[in-house]
Specification:
The protein is 57% helix and 9% strand. It has 272 residues and is an alpha/beta fold. The chain has two domains: 31 residues; 239 residues, no CATH class. The chain has a five-stranded parallel β-sheet, sandwiched between helices. The longest helix is centred in the first third of the chain and has 28 residues.
Length: 272
């Protein structure tokens, strides 16, 4: 091969490398912005008594609490959300949000209305996304196994710990604003404490009988479906606020962290 041919080949090769590099850089520059997701773990404002241990919520319809909720909404509005998602089924959410905007929804203490609908209306959003999914919570088989295997004291200790946490949140409302309560409810320590309950249940079982693992599998299935519904709503560049029971917060945060092109935003910076 002559020197001239070698020089020509080198120039062509360098040109190809430059073209590939330029193309890659251009693709990176034009890549859509990630969707940003904020998970706000809540408790049940209306005291429905549906959980294993229930927080006694102060009446959020009191004028002082309404002012606090307005302040929370104003603060969350700084995030400028384009999506609000809540712990209700889609059909019920669509129907009730339409009534809320029309001023015909009956007075409600529910956190979906007081937090989710309020924020969405402030942002002038046409829709609130109900992303809840049905699921089992087979706690009775765990208790039955513990009873047969002399582990009921451990179950009782776990339940006492959870009930102590709910009492703390109830007591905190006597002297703190809802913003402060929700801030503290969404710290990493509080969310890890709630998640620890599920991890501890994995100790309940032996051999082929694994009721603790089965409960975790059922819980994970529900959370995966919720996560799927959330991801299916998001578009590049969206900013979503998700209001959900705090027990789901760990799983939904992992959803946002692990999903491609999604960025988790810390809720505590927008609370209190």
């Amino acid at each position: 091969m002559s020197a001239m041919v070698r020089r020509f080949t080198l120039i062509v090769a360098l040109g190809c490398v430059t073209a590939v590099t330029t193309s890659t850089a251009s693709a990176a520059e034009t890549r859509a912005a990630p969707a940003k997701v904020m998970i706000v773990g809540t408790f049940h404002f209306a005291n429905p008594g549906l959980d294993l241990a229930n927080i006694e919520a102060d009446d959020v319809l009191k004028p002082a609490r309404q002012q606090e909720l307005a302040a929370i909404t104003e603060s969350l509005g700084r995030f400028d959300p384009t999506v609000v998602a809540v712990e209700w089924p889609a059909a019920a959410t669509d129907e009730r949000y339409t009534a809320y905007r029309a001023g015909t929804l009956p007075e409600s203490r529910n956190e979906v209305v007081q937090l989710g609908f309020r924020l969405a209306a402030k942002q002038k959003l046409d829709r609130v996304h109900g992303i809840d999914a049905p699921g089992d919570f087979p706690f009775e088989p765990v208790q039955a196994w513990a009873r047969r295997n002399g582990k009921m004291a451990a179950i009782e200790a776990m339940m006492a710990s959870v009930q102590a946490m709910t009492r703390r949140v109830g007591d905190q409302q006597k002297s703190a604003t809802l913003g402060t309560v929700l801030h503290d409810f969404n710290t990493p320590a509080a969310i890890e404490l709630a998640q620890g309950f599920y991890a501890e249940l994995l100790r309940f079982g032996a051999g082929d009988e694994q009721p603790g693992a089965e409960l975790n599998a059922a819980w994970a299935r529900r959370n995966y479906i919720i996560c799927a519904k959330l991801l299916q709503v998001l578009k590049p560049g969206d900013r979503a606020v998700v209001f959900y029971g705090q027990g789901h917060a760990h799983a939904l945060q992992r959803c946002a962290i692990e999903a491609p092109d999604v960025q988790l935003v810390d809720a505590t910076g927008y609370l209190r």
